[in-house]
Amino acid sequence: xxxxxxxxxxxxxxxxxxxxxxVGYTVVYGIVQLINFAHGExxxxxxxxxxxxxxxxxxxxxxxxILPIMIIGAMIAAVGTAVLMERVAYRPLRHAPRxxxxxxxxxxxxxxxxxxxxxxxxxxxxxxxxxxxKIPFPQIDVVTGPAIDLGGVTIQRAAVFTFGALLMCAAGxxxxxxxxxxxxxxxxxxxxxxxxxxxxxxxxxxxVVAFAVGAGLAAVAGVAQGLQNTNINFKMGFIAxxxxxxxxxxxxxxxxxxxxxxxxxxxxxxxxITQYSGMLPGFLGQFGGSSWKDVWAFALLILVLVFRPxxxxxxxxxxxx
Length: 321
Fold this sequence. Notes:
321 residues; mainly alpha; two-stranded antiparallel ribbon; 4 strands
């Protein structure tokens, strides 16, 4: 039972990261019907933004009050990248065939990876380390340090921060979408952008807000990833982005609650399958262990797409006039 609870905790921690990134996918898709495959790199740039903030302002310090400022720095970097991406790359292709923005997203993903790899240590006026290798991420008092032991179950302090961040971000996003004027505008545009434009809603501004909201959540996930893994690298967004996309589809692409549920389900399933798949009899037993976790994760996605294509919660589909 202790092993099961430990893997459950590990899965919820991993799933919280997936969910924070997946919400960005699903918010953008719900508004403009676009799968932004560069969103994983926005997550990566958020982590590098937090690191840059720390190195510029607080190098060598570990006080807890530094963490909110690092998160703000991460959000500025991630949101700035996402908004620029939308304005320069996606807006001109908004009425192009769907294959065009998809290919563009993949190109932006590669560009952002290589840009960070080649130029992070060459920013004028800084003495940043090279991004061509893993860079140690600052460890902050209270949210990092010795793990918490509860009845034999080990809980990393950074895991508590990650899960708490998911709860706070999910609650804040729900309030923003359902209780603010801009949030209601997002709902209107997601249902029918043409009618929303006729009703006086600035559709372009709403789309920018959607990209910014998704990027902000991805930035928080980037900080959480750095605190958990104690290092970051320019390739960290690729697999994380694919897993988050899987979580969004698993929960129901276009459904915010589905993205959160999909992320948690994917994380828990990945953790439990990794632990127990090695116990399968005969030939199947060789497919256990952490080296097979990505295989099992995408196998789960295939099963969901075959038997429930709309995802676990189902996307909210509205007939447009």
